[in-house]
Records
---
Amino acid sequence: MRVFVTGASGWIGSTVVTELLGSGHQVLGLARSDASAESVARLGADVQRGSLEDLDSLRAGAAAADSAVHLGYHHDFSQMERAAQIDLAAIEAVGAVLEGSGGALVIASGTLGLAPGRVGTERDVPDAAVHPRVANALAALAFAERGVRPVVVRFAPTVHGAGDHGFVAALVATARDKGVSAYIEAGENRWPAVHRIDAGRLVRQAVLEAPGGSVLHAVAEEGVPTREIAEAIGRGLDVPVVSIPAAQAMDHFAWLGGFFGADAPASNTLTCELTGWAPTHPGLIADLDEGHYFETPIS
């Protein structure tokens, strides 16, 4: 199989490319810049130059493949509506090319805000008011009626591992800057997490095996209490661990404050039953305790 991958040089996408190539498949990776193109080629994939806003490049990539994995996204919290619009246009462009082929169209979504107050499952449909991207998953699933095999993979908000520059890395940077590792109130709210390699393996399985219309959760840990995350960061940096009031969260954590205070556990039960996926890599606390998050940043 030949698979077109957007976000191929990214945190999760590069792992997906490696997983697909390791399974004997060909990969065509979208690359916006020379640096991204070099990264994709270094992985062993072919390169399709273009961007998420260049719909012709997306159509060309999809036309040269049997299936597609759409992981590219503009993660700019100041332009959430615009980012979601670009994402939707990309999904529609790639899906239209795959129409009638029976090929897979795997897209990324998230579990954050899925089911406030309880553990979210793959059967839950989040409120579109939570994030404008929610409607895009529904648009992707609608391609099942057009001869495509759509699959939505909802990722845990924390996809961790060596080299992570996401939420956990931001928490570490905040703790280093403030001189304390903080959690909000009692720190009992829970964050789901998954190791990067386990996430990449699930996407590979989604491309190759998942039934059309599937919604999968790339979640290895249902919910890690945020106090435990703060304590692991405190150990790693050798700084005090403190509780802060919710009213001070935005001042302390900046943009991350609204996320770190959320209680957002999510299940992977249906995903594992449907695909046989079994996460094997270290959990979030074990990954933090390995120490790579605390290596001195290169200035």
Note: Residues 32 and 50 are 5 Å apart (CA to CA).
---
Amino acid sequence: MTMAEDTQVIIVGAGPVGLLLAGELRLGGARVVVVESRVTPTTESRASTLHARTMELFDSRGLLAALGDPPRDHRGHFGGIPLDLGQPSRHSGQWKVPQARTEQVLQEWAVSLGAQVRRGATLTGVHDDGAAVHATIRTARGRSVLRAPYLVACDGEDSTVRRLTGAEFPGRPAHRELLRADVAGVEIPDRRFERLAPGLAIAARRPDGVTRVMVHEFGRPAGQRTGPPGFGEVVDAWKRVTGEDLSGGTPLWVNAFGDANRQLRHYRHGRILFAGDAAHQQMPAGGQALNLGLQDAANLGWKLALEVGARPPAGLLDSYHRERHQVGARVLANIRAQALLLLGDEEVDSVRVLLGELLAEEGNRDRLAAMISGLDVRYPQEDGDDPRLGRRMPELTWQTPDGPVGTAALLRAGRGVLLDRCGRPGGPMSRIGRPWADRVDTVTARPAGDAEFEDHTAVLIRPDGYVAWIGADVHGAEEALRRWFGAATPEG
């Protein structure tokens, strides 16, 4: 075994969640090493849906151009019942980006910022001694130890870190499952959540000619699997449900997923934290699982970077569990409902009819659309009852001394932003923000043509785009800066 090597944060897992977290940590100045057992990046496009809030986050980091021009659909669903996802966001709807492409973009971004990604590195042991985390890694060259103040598990629903630490993961196992495959060379009709007498069938042909199929036979329980199903199992199930023959096609990949629904009791265990599917396991209904995990990473990254910095705010890191566990529980509840609506037999038909009628009402439709899109999140606040606190900052255009700038551009550096709405450069609010200039940008700006923030002098925005404080009192601003971003930098 080689000698222990030091860094500031170890991330286990180079999927989308781990790679986004690595980039967020580097924006905050933290040294980070990502370890991944896979030797090469995935070529399987499992999760392919990005929702509005995730796209807003990517926009705030300048990542949209790298994604290209992905297809966009304002149609979504809730348990297979059509749902219009139009929301007050320029990124509303769902964007179809293959997971392989999302991982490629995030890895290139994180590495360009200085993150280290080590592939072919398997975690075999982890120990938190109270002062640091020691991770034992096996590679083709042998074993080594990485040591860091913190480790984050982003290693999926079968998390090795969760197993090694014995973290409590309550919930229910899978009762039903869907078989899924990407198949080339087949000609079958598209089916959008089609419920036939024997089961559920979904088929969608992509522009490249590959057809994604998913199938569930009503009443068929989830089996105990030690690996993915064979293509023959998909062929047989598809024929029993639809009468169509897939056997002449070429499978590109095949897997199965169930309706298991579990959530860690605590997202933080001392110096070990969990994000994405390592923290919560759910059926990937409408892409919510991937987006939930990416938003975990956006919430955690800036907080953990401050924690390993010179002047960490007291208690800030604990807010990760407090905020994201609540969001995760709500998403898991809606996915449980969707799983029953999708995979239940004729006994759920009357509920589906009733829900379809309710979703014809605009208010009900908008509420579910905002939930699925991640736009309804409001983190709990202790600084007042203003309804804007804890919510994402709207996508506004701000008039600054240097010209108009959008909300996303203000957040591009991954730092906090103190918006001095009524002041001038060098005014009282600017002077208050000066001791935090290494972590927070103070910007003199007015919203252009929007009255939502006309009634307060200043707004403090977190690096993940959520409103932390609103007010006119410079002393209140100073207190909020200290609470969210730590002690002021000493003058001198």
Note: The longest helix spans residues 318-343.
---
Amino acid sequence: MRVFVTGASGWIGSATVDDLLSAGHQVTGLARSDASAVALDAKGVEVLRGDLDDLDALARGAKESEAVVHLANKHDWADMSASNRAERYAVQTLSDALVGTDRPLVVASGLARLRPDGPGSESDPSPFVGVDSLRGGAENLALEYADRGVRVIAARFAPTVHGMGDHGFISYIVAAAKRHGVSAYVGDGSTAWSAVHRSDAAHLVRTAMENAPGGTRVHAAAESVGSREIAEAIGRSLDVPVTAVAPEDAVDHFGFIGAFFGLEMTGTSDQTRELLGWNPTGPTLLQDIADGAYAHS
């Protein structure tokens, strides 16, 4: 298939592009910068210049493709409302372009806060609705198009998609450990995050695009890891002591990520595995920490 990928040069997107190409798909990648365009071209990817605010480019990329994988996000932590609005309008534009085609549209989402009482499942609807909510409520918006001739799949990613060179959430926690000379967890360390290796996440995106029915939610979650376990693994890797930080001091210690590190952000993936035969095979998060995946942080 001809697949249009937003976020094609990003952390998950670049691995997804590689997986798509290895399976014989033709890929067009949205490129915001010259560096991204060069990297995509070197892989044999057709480049479409633009960003999430360029709605004309998004519509053109979708209309000229047989499938769309939307992985881009501004991730502007200083202006989340702008990120949320951009995400909603981008998803609406991509969805509108595919109405009546029965073509697949994979939309990235997350596992955070699906349920207040434990791990969320694929059956749990996203609690985020409307432009002012997390990610602009884009998951719920996209799923409305399943009844309008779009094969929408919501791909919910674990809060940490890890691997060598990861600059995501765990890298901020490692950087705080280096800065303070101690590896910390929040409170009693009993909360947990789901995690998945980057290669497994990419493979799930491609498999869902090829095979998942419209209106499906899939979970890229291979395991759940306790926050204290994460801190202890970081402590071993850096050879620094491990300590607890009070919840009210978490942001001062970790920076913005401190507002999230003490939260339970987990989800199961049983339904995803059964539906698609997805079987994660990559290293675990603790293995990656031990093997130096965050030495750059």
Note: The radius of gyration is 19 Å.
